[in-house]
Write a structure and sequence with these properties.
There is one protein chain. The protein is mainly alpha-helical and about 160 residues long. About 75% of the residues lie in helices and about 0% in strands. It has 3 helices and no strands. The protein has helices at about 1-15, 45-130, 140-155. The longest helix is centred in the middle third of the chain and has 84 residues, at about 45-130. It is rod-shaped.
Length: about 160
């Protein structure tokens, strides 16, 4: 049992002070691995500060280039949309004009048909009014006389 305790004490004693990592704020890794440790570590030198500035400027320049590229792409898309809307408007206007002309044509056709029907009715009425009923049977004579009376009443 003494051997076990001696070995145990010996292993504790052999541990080097450099391998022990204390749990102090300087040793806690906060995830900032960009070379600057903020207020926790030693202040960065001029070269490191200039390098950090150059790095941030180059990131900004790349970001500006991407922004310009996106702005140009957006402008192109807006222009294409504008052209598409103009084309759509022209097509709708053309369809409207065609529909309007079709309606006018239909209206003219209906007026012509109405006039034709009036003419046909007038011809039929003239035929009935000028009908010679002297050689007709009595039933037909009565029919045509009745029709002649209707025509005369309608015109008055």
């Amino acid at each position: 049992m003494e051997d076990f305790q001696a070995k145990k004490q010996k292993s504790k004693h052999n541990a080097t002070p450099g391998s022990f990592v204390p749990s102090t704020p300087e040793s806690i890794n906060l995830g900032d691995d960009d070379g600057s440790h903020g207020s926790l570590g030693k202040p960065s030198g001029r070269k490191a500060e200039k390098a950090r500035l150059r790095k941030s400027k180059s990131k900004e320049a790349r970001g500006d280039a991407k922004n310009i590229e996106l702005i140009n792409l957006l402008a192109i898309m807006q222009e294409e949309k504008k052209l598409a809307n103009e084309k759509k408007f022209e097509m709708m206007e053309k369809c409207y004009l065609q529909e309007h002309q079709r309606l006018l044509h239909d209206e003219q056709r209906l007026l012509q048909e109405k006039e034709k029907m009036k003419m046909d009715i007038m011809k039929e009425e003239d035929r009935i009014m000028s009908m010679d009923t002297s050689c007709m049977p009595q039933l037909q004579v009565e029919y045509y006389q009745h029709r002649q009376m209707e025509i005369l009443e309608k015109k008055m």
